[in-house]
Write a structure and sequence with these properties.
Elements (H helix, E strand, L loop, with lengths): L12 H26 L3 E3 L4 H5 L6 E4 L6 E6 L3 E8 L2 E8 L16 E3 L13 H13 L10 E2 L3 E4 L2
C-alpha cells in the first residue's frame, strides 16, 4: 500500500498534520524494533555471587567499560574464564566470584575482581578445553590465583545469554 503523498501546491493544515503523524509513527516503530534487537545485554551494577553464578559457558560478557564482549569458555564454583582470539592473539580474563578480602594495587576489599592469571609467561591456552579445565582446577585448589598486578575491581557486568 502506497503512502499518501503530501500535495505541497495546496497545503491544507489537517493534511499536513496527518502526513507528519504517519511519518512519525513509522519512524518510531522502526526505532522500537531496533532498540529491542540491539539491547540484548543484561547489565548488572550491584553485583552479588548469585548474579555471577548465572553466567554460563557460551555467554558473551562485557565488564566495566569494555567496548567489545568476550565469550565465557569455562565456569567453576568460584571463577569463570572468558577468552577470545583477536588478531591472532588470545585475550582472556578471569572473574573471581568471591569477594576480595583485602586491598591491593587496583582492587579493593569487598569487591569482586577480574584479571589475568599470576603466571608470568602463561602456561594455559584459554581456547583449549583441557587447558581451561586444568586452569579452573588450579584456581579452585589455590595453586593459581589472579595476578596481583593486573587484577581490577569488577564494577558492572553486561551479559548476553547465548
Amino acid at each position: 500500500m502506497k503512502d499518501k503523498m503530501l500535495d505541497i501546491s495546496k497545503p491544507n493544515r489537517s493534511e499536513v498534520k496527518e502526513y507528519f503523524q504517519r511519518q512519525l509513527e513509522s519512524v518510531s516503530n522502526k526505532f522500537v524494533e531496533c532498540k529491542k534487537v540491539k539491547n540484548e545485554y543484561i547489565t548488572y551494577e550491584n553485583l552479588t555471587k548469585e548474579i555471577l553464578d548465572t553466567v554460563k559457558v557460551g555467554d558473551l560478557v562485557k565488564c566495566n567499560d569494555w567496548k567489545s564482549p568476550i565469550r565465557v569458555v569455562g565456569v567453576s564454583d568460584n571463577y569463570f574464564i572468558m577468552a577470545t582470539n583477536k588478531f591472532g592473539k588470545v585475550l582472556y580474563s578471569i572473574c573471581q566470584k568471591k569477594i576480595a578480602d583485602h586491598n591491593r594495587n587496583y582492587y579493593h576489599e569487598g569487591k569482586f575482581r577480574i584479571g589475568t592469571d599470576n603466571y608470568v609467561f602463561g602456561i594455559f591456552d584459554y581456547l583449549n578445553n583441557t587447558d581451561i579445565a586444568e586452569a579452573l582446577q588450579e584456581l579452585e585448589n589455590g595453586k593459581m590465583e589472579l595476578s596481583v598486578r593486573k587484577a581490577i575491581d569488577l564494577i558492572l557486568i553486561s551479559v548476553k545469554i547465548s
